[in-house]
């Protein structure tokens, strides 16, 4: 159950979230200093604020990462942070 103002439970990825993850790919690669051939959104959590915060589990050719992305209601997707060292089974926690 989601608390008001909190993040949702983990959900299977949607086409919209796949697109948001791809929009954050270049910034993620720059932050980590590497290029990914594989960059596939798997699951996500979201939080409605003045826009939407997304925590997205992404499968890469080096394993799994979690990315945090903000999408304002009217505006461009903004990469915020990345966590390395994740697994398919690791929970997507706030960071």
TrEMBL record:
Might you report a single GO cellular component term? cytosol
**Cytoplasm in keyword set:** yes
- Where does the record place the Cystatin domain? 5-83
Question: Which GO terms of the molecular function aspect are on file?
Answer: cysteine-type endopeptidase inhibitor activity
Q: Which InterPro entries match?
A: Cystatin_dom, Cystatin_sf, Prot_inh_stefin
Q: Where in the cell is it found?
A: Cytoplasm
The lineage's top-level taxon is Eukaryota
> Per the annotation, which location comes first and is thus the protein's main one?
cytoplasm
Q: Which UniProt keywords apply?
A: Cytoplasm, Protease inhibitor, Thiol protease inhibitor
Q: Which family does it belong to?
A: Belongs to the cystatin family.
Q: What is this protein called?
A: Cystatin domain-containing protein
Protein species of origin: Polysphondylium violaceum
């Amino acid at each position: 159950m989601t608390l008001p103002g909190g993040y949702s439970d983990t959900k299977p990825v949607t086409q919209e979230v796949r697109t948001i993850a791809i929009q954050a790919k270049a910034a993620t690669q720059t932050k980590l200093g590497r290029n990914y051939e594989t960059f596939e959104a798997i699951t996500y959590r979201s939080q409605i604020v003045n826009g939407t915060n997304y925590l997205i589990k992404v499968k890469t050719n080096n394993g799994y990462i979690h990315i945090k992305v903000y999408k304002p209601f009217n505006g461009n997707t903004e990469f915020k942070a990345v966590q390395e060292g994740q697994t398919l089974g690791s929970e997507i926690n706030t960071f």
